[in-house]
Q: What sequence folds into this?
């Protein structure tokens, strides 16, 4: 009898627990009614400054979700009432001071119900101080530094994998292929430095000998000397950590000096179609990591899986989405699902719903641990082959085998 | 092995020095001839870079060295020409009236120009960095069977810089060059012999910006650039000019070469972080050893 009762309770928990996971809704599909009440979502996006490339991709991701929810889905169902979504966008100029002013204005002046986060761990961190103080939830797909989620914040939820996973995939692959020595170069700012430290411990874990670790200043224009020393060391593996601009400089300098390690691993660049177009043939054989790719077997009922999402994005913006854009759309989607299952816009209720969220989406499974960080996400290793970021690891999803060692510049 | 490393660093340093020489020649000429210390120097250089980039970008698919050899001079001429006109107009109708013979007004005016240029640049081009143009132009020559390589783009840059600087030197021998020097050395005497200061200043500043624009065109092939990256170039040009002094182009060339080599050696043996500090370290040493000339310049505006 007791067992039976317990199993009934268990069944009840399972049922309730999965409610947020279903995509059931009551709003009639189609455009949301003109007189619908509004949910205001505050967005701070880096449309100028050093992260403008990444920032505009993130904003496109939010806009794609916004157009879909207002134009096709009939709005967000909050306790039986269909709400229209309004995005309020501020340009944060990639600047921490501006971010904090922007978030303050969004919350105080614009009365935003929730905040959708900016790009980069630095800016997310600044924004999170304000969302914590004002008790407003922020969800983001642009900041992945572990330290963001180690501060006991209640109101921050992040969809992307912790940063330490970034270089693990490519390094592991290169090790299996025979890499035994490595060099590291990184831009001397907070996030690349943290990533480089992680890369260093991953290399040590595999017993790969680190021949040199070199850092360079943020605005360095000439890395010839650095690559001349690296060429002298002749490593199997090069790990270069910085942003888009740094990756371009790495490749350009390596080519000019004929530096060709077996694997050329970078933190950003290979997973951005726009970057690959600009770099042309020189980007071939670059290794990188991606939080998401349109060819991953992720399925959902909304966008037609990862591939369906990529098609939709391309018809809206003219190019394929990067993992950043997809992460932004998925963040907004996760927030919407949590609001719908909570049936209210109340911060505490939506927070509880976010903790309970466990769904499969075009971005893969979305689930948060109790620090607000993403759980159970997979980072894939990619290598640029024929102008595309081909997934080369892990083996379950890989559709290409890695080319190792990369041909020297003379042979290309 | 050790000697290969040293030779490669030397080669890199010479190539870098050649570029620095051209980059700071315009800054030096403008300062010397009109007394205006151009704080917008880096931004004018970026303007040249964007002009060149628009030309290169159309030819993005081609990767032959021959096309590169044609495009380089074309870009240099385009950027130099447009900036000559801009410099002439600016000096003739703006600086002549506001900034002449007053150091602080000149500084304020060029600072304002700098802010305007940065923001116009951001509005027109956005702040995404432009990658070095001609994606396939990073080819190199290998010297014999050794590991030493010579990248094509900086070599073209060095050749172009040499031609442009030689032209600037040759200018001294013709009338207009003499007039520019006369106006700089003694404005009153120059006027007495019938030189129109306003016109000469305008031509001189036009030439200064033309050199700067040419340097910008080379920059577009060497390093990533964005509208807000000009300040670093202004500072570097100032360091080269103060190290070499204003009076002789030969001194400027050796100063640029010293800085190029010092950056390359320190980057190779000490780390890239050090390379960025070298021009300013050299400048401090020079100011300690031989201060008076530079103080005079700052106080008087024009010499």
A:
């Amino acid at each position: 009898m007791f067992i039976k009762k317990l199993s009934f309770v268990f069944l009840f928990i399972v049922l309730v627990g999965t409610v947020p996971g279903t995509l059931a809704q009551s709003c009639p599909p189609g455009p949301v009614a003109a007189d619908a009440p509004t949910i205001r979502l505050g967005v701070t996006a880096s449309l100028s400054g050093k992260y403008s490339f990444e920032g505009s991709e993130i904003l496109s991701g939010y806009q794609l979700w916004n157009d879909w929810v207002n134009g096709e889905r009939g709005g967000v169902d909050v306790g039986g009432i269909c709400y229209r979504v309004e995005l309020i966008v501020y340009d944060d100029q990639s600047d921490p001071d501006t971010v904090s002013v922007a978030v303050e204005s969004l919350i105080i002046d614009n009365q935003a119900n929730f905040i959708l986060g900016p790009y980069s761990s630095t800016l997310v961190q600044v924004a999170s101080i304000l969302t914590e103080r004002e008790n407003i939830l922020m969800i983001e797909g642009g900041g992945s530094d572990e330290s963001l989620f180690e501060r006991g914040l209640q109101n921050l939820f992040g969809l992307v994998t912790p940063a330490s996973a970034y270089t693990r995939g490519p390094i592991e692959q290169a090790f299996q292929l025979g890499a035994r020595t490595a060099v590291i170069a990184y831009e001397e700012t907070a996030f690349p430095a943290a990533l480089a430290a992680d890369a260093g411990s991953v290399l040590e874990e595999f017993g790969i000998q680190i021949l040199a670790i070199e850092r360079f200043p943020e605005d360095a224009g000439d890395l010839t000397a650095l690559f001349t020393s690296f060429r002298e060391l002749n490593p199997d593996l090069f790990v270069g950590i910085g942003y888009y601009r740094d990756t371009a400089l790495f490749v350009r300098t390596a080519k000019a000096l004929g530096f060709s390690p077996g694997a050329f691993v970078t933190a950003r660049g290979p997973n951005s179609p726009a970057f690959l177009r600009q770099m042309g043939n020189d980007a071939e054989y670059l290794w990188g990591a991606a939080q998401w790719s349109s060819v991953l077997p992720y399925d959902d009922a909304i966008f037609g899986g990862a591939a369906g999402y990529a098609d939709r994005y391309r018809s809206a913006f003219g190019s394929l989405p990067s993992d950043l854009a997809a992460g932004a759309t998925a963040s907004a989607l996760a927030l919407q699902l949590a609001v719908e299952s909570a049936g209210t816009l109340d911060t505490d209720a939506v927070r509880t719903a976010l903790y309970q969220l466990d769904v499969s989406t075009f971005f893969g499974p979305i689930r948060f641990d109790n620090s607000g960080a993403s759980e159970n996400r997979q980072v894939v290793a990619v290598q640029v082959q024929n102008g595309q970021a081909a997934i080369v690891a892990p083996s379950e999803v890989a559709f290409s085998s890695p080319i190792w060692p990369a041909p020297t510049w003379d042979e290309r | 092995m050790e000697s290969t490393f040293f030779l490669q660093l030397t080669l890199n340093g010479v190539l870098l020095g050649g570029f620095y020489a051209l980059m700071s020649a315009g800054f030096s000429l403008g300062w010397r001839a009109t007394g205006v210390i151009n704080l917008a120097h880096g931004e004018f250089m970026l303007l040249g870079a964007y002009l060149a980039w628009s030309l290169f970008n159309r030819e993005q698919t081609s990767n032959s060295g021959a096309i590169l050899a044609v495009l380089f001079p074309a870009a240099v001429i385009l950027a130099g020409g447009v900036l000559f006109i801009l410099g002439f107009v600016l000096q003739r109708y703006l600086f002549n009236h506001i900034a002449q013979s007053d150091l602080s007004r000149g500084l304020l005016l060029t600072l304002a120009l700098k802010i305007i240029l940065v923001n116009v640049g951001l509005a027109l081009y956005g702040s995404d960095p432009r990658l070095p143009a001609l994606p396939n132009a990073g080819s190199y020559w290998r010297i014999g069977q050794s590991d030493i390589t010579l990248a094509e783009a900086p070599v073209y840059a060095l050749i172009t810089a040499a031609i442009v600087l030689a032209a600037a030197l040759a200018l001294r021998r013709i009338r207009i060059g003499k007039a520019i020097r006369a106006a700089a050395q003694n404005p009153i005497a120059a006027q007495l012999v019938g030189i129109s200061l306003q016109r000469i200043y305008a031509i001189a500043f036009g030439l200064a910006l033309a050199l700067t624009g040419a340097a910008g065109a080379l920059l577009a092939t060497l390093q990533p650039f964005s509208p807000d990256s000009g300040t670093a170039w202004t500072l570097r040009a100032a360091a080269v000019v103060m190290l070499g002094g204003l009076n002789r182009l030969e001194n400027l060339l050796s100063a640029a070469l010293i800085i190029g080599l010092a950056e390359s050696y320190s980057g190779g043996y000490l780390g890239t972080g050090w390379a960025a500090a070298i021009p300013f370290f050299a400048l401090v040493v020079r100011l300690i050893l031989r201060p008076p000339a530079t103080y005079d310049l700052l106080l008087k505006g024009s010499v």
Notes: Chain B touches chain A at residues 1, 4-5, 8-9, 12, 16, 60, 63, 122, 126-129, 131-132, 135-136, 138-140, 142, 147, 149, 151, 153-154, 222-224, 226, 228-229, 232, 263-268, 271-273, 275-276 (CB under 8 Å).
